[in-house]
Fold each of these.
Amino acid sequence: MKEYLIPVSKSVVAHREVLPVGTLGKQIEFHMEAGDLPVVSKAKFAIFGIRENRSDVNYMGGTVNFENFRKALYSLYPGNWSGKIIDLGDIEKGNTVEDTLFAVKQVTEELLLKKVIPIILGGSQDMAYSQYRAYDMIGKMVNYVNVDSRFDIGDSEQVVTNKSYVGKIIVDEPYNLFNYSALGYQSYYNPPQEIGLMDKLYFDAYRLGDVVADIKGVEPMLRDADIVTLDATSIKGAFLSMDGNESPNGFDGREICAVSRYAGISNKVSSFGVYELNGNTESKSGAMLIAQIIWYFIEGVNFRVKDDDFNDESYFTTYNVPIDDEILMFKKSNKTGRWWIELPFISNVNNKLKRHTLLPCTYGDYLGATQQEIPERWYKARRKNEI
């Protein structure tokens, strides 16, 4: 792993020295000398950056720098957290974009194998392809949730960019993608054919207006995710204040931090990436918002509650709801009050889908079922299984 990573900048190291006692910067172990990495096996979280942006559709030769994000993050105080955080430094641009993709996959894969959660600061979001490919070694289908104003499907037959990497994820072997969910998309940024393709593939797509109207509604999608990525341009330009983010609409600071915390609380999320940090990052408020997004993710992980072990029925209350010729089985955790719905059509399949026999849902889904409304995500999961 160490051959792919360069140390954090001297500016960040110097900034650390002047921070007050008790801040994150005083507690995190840094990669400060080339090749001298912190002990990964003892960490719970590992932060690293990816200085790659050559596949950005708007690439004009600029460089990527994460100094201000790190300085902002390390000036914050931790919550009541357990688990060590390390900073591995950055993956520099390779000779080619493919070289960088390979390095990202190798580093992410090694962290996952050691049960360490990668927290990635990324340049162009095509690097999320390698974050996904790092799960090849697990041998199970994975769920990918992308917080983004765009679907980023693009044309998989063309050169991959930060606006088409999801298409590559869908068509490339090995096929490990069970579901792709896009949270906060804005219709005018997405070609009609991509909106239609999302529906045809039975993927989940939630418009920005629907998400912010009920931010708690994203929790079930994030509870079922393995990979979560966040495109920084999904945040309102006025909140992030970065070059390349001119959108007047998007998530505000409170909303995006709530989404990040839900991602952390999920027992399944094992990697988290914040991408499209390509623009001018001189804005202190923009850097601080990214820092707080990461802070809330770590906070969420530290407040995880294990309530998805269904071997002991005494931990759950089961509700059977008849709809037409179906009987939908809902389970409610007696510990947290969270809800699931059974997917009986794949419960006896001995393949990569075996872990997906219960689908996270909401109390509202249960109430809708009692009114003879089949939950949309349950219906999509069934149709996907029938293809």
Note: The two ends are 40 Å apart (CA to CA).
Amino acid sequence: MKIGKLDFGDFPLFLAPMEGVTDASFRLMCKEFGADMVYTEFVSADALIRHVNKTEAKLSISDEERPVVIQIYGREIEPMVEAAKICRDANPDILDINFGCPVKRVAGKGAGAGMLRNIPQMLKITKAVVEAVDIPVTVKTRLGWDHDSRIIETLAEELQDCGIAALSIHGRTRSQMYTGSADWDYIGRVKANPKIKIPIIGNGDVTSAEIAKERFEEYKTDAIMIGRGAIGAPWIFRDIKGYMLNPDTYKPLSVEEKMNVFRRQMRESIARLDERRGILHIRRHLAATTLFKGIPNFRDIKIAMLRAEKEDELNAIFDTIQEKYLNNKIGDEEN
């Protein structure tokens, strides 16, 4: 599968853009575990052209991450074009436009998935951005605004006509937010449409190697994008690749190795932010991980882990968890 001049081979896996999650450290970690391409946290076009420091910091990428995508969102043509040019100067491999974020502060203002209620403006923005930069431009969107307006089959053709190099589809409507199940049937229909010549990337509810294999085989997407399935489990890319390519010889990471991933995340988050904010940042991963599933009487330990405020305190809790986990031999088969 190719996007522009980038060749991703068979069964490519992409790390989805996630606000507050896909910082540089996490992107690099997922890359090391086998992600074929990673995306930055999404970048507000309006904030970028106002030179908001926190937003400009999101444009910082490294060669170790490549291929890497910067994603932008906005609702007006001129700010999006100007922001696209600023992003291009940061030298990403691809520029992605977010037409899929469902949160109220974005979609409620007409950006992100809010654009699904203003398709003419969406297409104007897309065409203008494609024409403004000399790198591949892609789009990420959803099935439609709600159950009664699942327009992705027609929309995919219209976006392709704007000149995008690939399309990522999350299998939910905006109204669903992240509830219910992702509907991959619509993604499969877009991929099967003979008029669609660009790569189609499927996204939604891929949380295991088995699910990824099923999605590739049933819906024939060119790539799979993994979002929430990577939170608290950046090794999911390694698991999928091993399961699909070397099923007879692949061995998952041990519990000890997975615990060391969390220790690394904590160290790097603290180094990037500070002790208090770094530990707050990693809590989302600790709360989401399935690694601790099956530990008896774990509730009190989990509460203490999510309330820890010091590096030494959290490391001590990790030590306790690791001893209990390893002694009980829980998790290796499940995770």
Note: The two ends are 29 Å apart (CA to CA).
Amino acid sequence: MDIRELKCPHCGKTFKVDEAGYAAILSQVKNKEFERELESRLKDISEKQKAKQEADGLKAEQEFQKKLAEKDAEIGQKKEEIARLTEHINGLNQKAAAEYGKQLNEKDMKISSLKAQIEKNDSDRQVAVLKEQDKANHLTHSFLGGQPQ
């Protein structure tokens, strides 16, 4: 059996252990060191994962903001186009209304002119009828030999 001397790192006392005790102490030290190393690596992995998630989140947020800005720009362009087309339609409506008003005015003037012509023709006809009646009265009176009654 092999006996070893070990020195306590805390109190500095030296003590002797056999091979089985030495193996047990070595196993404890290895297990504690393994656990510390495992804990350290898990912590590192966790921190790296958290940092990666934050970076991915920031990247996703930036991509979202970029797409949002692109959509806002598209909406702005569409609004400008709508405004331009609305202005164009309003101009066409005004032009059509002016043309319609002009045509309506021309028709009204023509109707007024035709009414005036009809009134003049009626007036001329009435004058002609009266003249003819007057002629007929004169003829009747001259035929009857007398004077108008």
Note: The mean pLDDT is 90.
